Amino acid sequence: MKKTSSRIVPNDIPLTETEFLESYNKNMPEGYPRATLTLLEKFKEAHLSLFKGKSAWTLDQHRKRLFDWLPQNIF
User: Fold this and answer.
1) DSSP category for residue 5
2) Is residue 3 in a domain?
3) HEC readout, 24-72
4) Which residue range is the domain that position 41 belongs to?
5) Which residues does 53 contact at the CB level (< 8 Å), separation at least 6?
6) How many domains does the chain have?
7) Does the residue 5 lie in any domain?
8) In terms of domain of life, where is this protein from (predicted)?
9) Biggest alpha carbon distance in the chain?
């Protein structure tokens, strides 16, 4: 039988919007649009199914989707 790992992967740790924003912007390539709290709120409204009743952000679940969404939604 396989033993379930109790190790928590850092990318799966729930983050506040501020923590997610800091990590996201810190790791983006130079010249790529930076996220703001306002843009995170717009992203959240557009992707409610990613949050399912909780407001926590995870790098694993949200980073790539925000990366793809951001350039078309900066005004």
Assistant:
1) P
2) no
3) HHHCCCCCCCCCCHHHHHHHHHHCHHHCCCCCCECHHHHHHHHHHHHHH
4) 13-25+35-73
5) none
6) 1
7) no
8) Bacteria
9) 53
